[in-house]
Specification:
Chain lengths: 241, 203
């Protein structure tokens, strides 16, 4: 290594050669210079030794104890399971309330009041002309409704008088026709123990023969809600901790 | 300077014997398997973080961050060398801290005579050689801490932990040519800093 060169390669070029960079090692002129230069040869040798020493630097023990696995955040059961599961509780509560309300209301507890209110609204003139008789008739219908429970849940709106028309006593008159006001007394006399019936309110004739009860719809919807909530709770279980 | 791993003084952590199976279990959600991997490689990760950051607390923070990132990402591990994958995550976590801190090391090269020497145990095959290697490592780490942040990061990732230029460029979000230049200048600067300890390289 006696050859001296007036112009040496850039030091970074020598460092690249020491690091084994492809472009530097492929440079035959550079390698020839380094092998013959008293300055560049030792520098490349030093850098190669340095790289070897760096590659041997040992691992170090952490200065403090580290948490190897991140902690699992606590799962709030109220928020687990997504929006569908969060919907289950209010759905279930609503369903239960609706079923309870429909059961109580359809059983007749409110029927009398509702019928009274409905009768007064439907035929105020008739009710006023007949006195309290109209109320008694409707109240009698409520009594039958209670006996027919729960079927009357779904057919509550059908007027009691129309259903009376379907009975054998009134079959000749037709189910959709009410007896004439003059026949009222006769038919009333045919029913033993029945009170004298006042003239029916003509507006009732316009009501359908078969109608769905409002309580029935409520009961049906409530049952659907309860079942849906149960299905959600079963199929969307909350995630455990 | 933190002590070297007492279980294997002066060495790098070798791969687990059944590493592929453990990694597969960890990727499938086995927390015990993941903890086994992190416990095995925590010295490697901490060593990288400490050499990049030059501060024990920050290195521990970076290693902890790396474990969390690794836990989130291990399900997407597509094979290869797990140690290299984990070290890349550690390098990113360390570099994030380094960028936030934007500080430069102020520590001077320590006097080898002061402080307790990290001598290997008496059962080492060649105590004299081991002692000189420990001294060399101490000087190397001290010299690394004197490099500018960008050069130290590039040299540590490339020459200490064996990443190629592309991986270093990705970890430091730098251009390939910039990374090469930093590495070359860092090596030359290290050579200057260690010139008075050349005898340690010759043993």
């Amino acid at each position: 290594m006696t050859m001296q060169h007036q112009i040496h390669p850039d030091d970074e070029r020598l460092a690249a050669l020491a690091g084994g960079d492809a472009d530097a090692t492929a440079d035959a002129g550079l390698r020839a210079h380094v092998s013959a230069c008293d300055r560049c040869g030792p520098m490349v040798s030093d850098l190669q030794e340095l790289r070897s020493a760096l590659a041997e630097l040992p691992d170090l023990v952490p200065s403090r104890r580290l948490q190897l696995v991140p902690p699992v955040p606590p799962v709030d059961p109220r928020t687990s399971g997504g929006w569908l599961r969060r919907l289950a509780a209010p759905l279930l509560a609503t369903g239960v309330v609706m079923v309870a309300a429909a059961t109580v209301g359809g059983s007749g507890v409110f029927t009398g009041i509702g019928s009274l209110a409905g009768g007064a609204a439907a035929a105020p003139s008739a009710a006023s002309s007949a006195g309290s008789g109209g109320g008694e008739d409707l109240a009698g219908g409520s009594e039958r409704d209670r006996l027919d429970f729960p079927l009357n849940l779904f057919f509550k709106l059908a007027p009691a008088r129309v259903r009376d028309a379907q009975s054998p006593e009134l079959s000749g008159a037709g189910s959709s026709q009410l007896p004439a006001p003059t026949d009222t007394g006769t038919k009333a006399s045919e029913a033993p123990g029945a009170p004298q019936q006042p003239s029916p309110a003509p507006v009732i004739d316009e009501e359908p023969v078969v109608a769905v009860s409002g309580w029935g719809v409520v009961l049906l919807l409530g049952a659907v809600f309860v079942v849906a909530a149960g299905v959600i709770l079963i199929t969307q279980p909350g995630r455990g901790p | 300077m933190p002590p070297t791993d007492p279980s294997s003084p002066g060495t790098r952590t070798p791969p687990l014997s059944d590493e592929a199976a453990v990694v597969a279990r960890a990727a499938a959600g086995d927390r015990t398997a993941f903890a086994q991997l992190m416990e095995h490689y925590q010295s490697a990760c901490y060593g990288l973080a400490w050499r990049l950051l030059g501060d024990a607390d920050q290195a521990a923070d970076a290693t902890q961050d790396a474990f969390i990132h690794a836990y989130d990402a291990i399900s997407r591990f597509r094979g290869g060398i797990f140690r290299a994958w984990l070290l890349r995550i550690t390098a990113n976590a360390s570099y994030d801290i380094l960028r936030r801190a934007q500080r430069r090391p102020t520590t001077t090269l320590p006097d080898p005579e002061e402080g307790a020497a990290e001598l290997p145990d008496a059962g080492a095959p060649n105590p004299v050689l081991e002692a000189s290697r420990s001294e060399l490592y101490r000087h190397l780490d001290a010299a690394l801490r004197l490099l500018p942040d960008d050069q130290r990061t590039a040299v540590v990732l490339c020459d200490v932990y064996g990443m190629d230029y592309g991986e270093v460029a990705e970890a430091t979000a730098s251009a390939l040519g910039t990374v090469k230049s930093r590495i070359h200048r860092g090596r030359l600067r290290l050579r200057e800093l260690l010139a008075e300890h050349r005898e340690l390289f010759e043993r």
